[in-house]
Backbone:
């Protein structure tokens, strides 16, 4: 009897999934207050944010996402992402010690930077029948894993430079039309991560001798819960 009941329950659950499924997520998200950590001009985009942390995630049929896929714990790590998009060549560098100001006497400094880069060039369209220009990936940037820099050792060397990144990827100097660089700073909190902190934006990125991001941004943590139904695929 128990076996039949279990089989029946499983069959009903699979039938419910066939008509659609749903997810439920609980996450910690840091929102920034003014000034906005973003700069955009012709051919240049610089943006920074704090990565969200999923504490709990589950899936299941619509209205009943009861199968857990992620069990989180109080957040003990933080990641700050800095993105640079260029449509023209420029000299750039990144801060090697962007410490978070938790209080007047407490700062949280990153232990590692994880850097990835991709570049594309556009042909002139002359080799295509429709004469339309097409974009192509530069292969040097797709052959190597991300660049990992221990920031304790980097401190004595100064900023993370364009040359550091090019050297890691073995970039030959070939022309590019679009360059995208992602820098993720990893922080480890002593116990739980702070609910509020300040980040001085001015030294995060230097572009042709100027600092595109200005001032100090304050990031405030909030707890978000999201239920999302997904329609099934009939037939």
Residues:
């Amino acid at each position: 009897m128990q076996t039949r009941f279990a089989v029946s329950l499983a069959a009903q659950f699979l039938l419910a999934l066939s008509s659609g499924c749903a997810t439920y997520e609980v996450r910690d998200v840091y929102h920034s207050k003014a000034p906005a950590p973003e700069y955009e001009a012709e051919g240049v985009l610089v943006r920074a944010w704090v990565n969200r942390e999923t504490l709990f995630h589950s899936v299941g049929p619509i209205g009943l996402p009861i199968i857990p896929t992620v069990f989180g714990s109080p957040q003990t790590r933080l990641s700050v992402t800095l993105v640079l998009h260029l449509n023209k060549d420029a000299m750039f560098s990144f801060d090697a010690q962007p410490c978070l100001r938790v209080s007047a006497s407490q700062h949280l400094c990153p232990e590692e930077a994880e850097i990835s880069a991709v570049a594309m060039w556009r042909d002139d369209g002359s080799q295509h029948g429709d004469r339309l220009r097409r974009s192509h990936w530069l292969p040097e940037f797709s052959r190597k894993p991300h660049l990992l820099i221990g920031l304790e050792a980097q401190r004595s060397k100064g900023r993370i430079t364009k040359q550091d990144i090019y050297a890691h990827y073995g970039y030959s100097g070939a022309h590019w039309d679009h360059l995208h660089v992602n820098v993720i700073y990893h922080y480890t909190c002593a116990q739980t991560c702070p609910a509020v902190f300040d980040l001085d934006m001015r030294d995060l990125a230097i572009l042709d001798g100027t600092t595109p991001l200005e001032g100090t941004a304050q990031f405030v943590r909030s707890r978000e819960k999201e239920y999302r139904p997904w329609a099934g695929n009939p037939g």
